[in-house]
What we know:
This protein has one domain: Carbon-nitrogen hydrolase (Nitrilase/N-carbamoyl-D-aminoacid amidohydrolase, 4-Layer Sandwich), CATH 3.60.110. 26% of the residues lie in helices and 27% in strands. It is built from 7 helices and 15 strands. The strands form 3 sheets. It has a 6-stranded mixed beta sheet with strand order 6-5-4-3-1-15. A 6-stranded mixed beta sheet has the order 7-8-9-10-13-14, with helices on one face. It is globular, with a radius of gyration of 18 Å.
Amino acid sequence: MRASLLQIGVDEGESVDSRRRRVASLVREQAGADLVVLPELWTTGAFAYESFTAEAEPLDGPTREAMAEAAADAGVWLHAGSIPERAAPDSGSAAGEGPLYNTSLVFSPSGDLAAAYRKIHRFGFDKGEAVLMGAGADLVTVRLPGTTLGMATCYDLRFPELFRGLVDAGAETFVVPAGWPERRRAHWTLLARARAVENQAYVLACGTAGTHAGVPQAGHSIVVDPWGEVLAEAGSGEEILTVDLDPAKVAATREQFPALKDRLLGLETPRR
């Protein structure tokens, strides 16, 4: 299984429409890959909070249209990173005032929307994304030929219980789009490896390059195998990271070192 991670550079001088067209072209160039992955909030920049409301779009908006066409043209599974989603208004809300979510989209090789995941853990504490966007409530997996993807986004990487839940739902490969800041890059690589080791799964963590609203990005997209070995790691600039994965290695690792079978917390108490 060949995966290509597109570490997109977000330049504040490039319009969202222009970047959307450029990224669609990059996706089309990955024909021959099985899975293509984009970063978190690459249309706006993960720290460009002031742009979220203005650039928010519904699930059937321009990014979905562009990415669906690109996935179909390339014939690839596409994890299109995430967008600022404007959900439909609740009953009683004024038109156009539906809540915002940080939502990831996955497309099949035919261009169909296979899954959408609303980020559960929002970053910012008492500001930014944590205030502007709603929290997702659902664990999401996607079945691909040979493996099952478990979906998480950026700050989610710090919460191991989410990944345990995805393992219980059948995940064998975690895909983690992110807009991770350079000042915490050491955490990024450490946590990606930890999630791989403790869950005996592949981790495909795709970040952005450039600077978002004055916040330099870490880049360093990384692919980790189920034993915790780093198979490939990008640098700090815009880059395409292409790696061949062996989906059978997940089952083999879990069989050879069956640590997951010894889990106790969270399981039902055995009957005596």
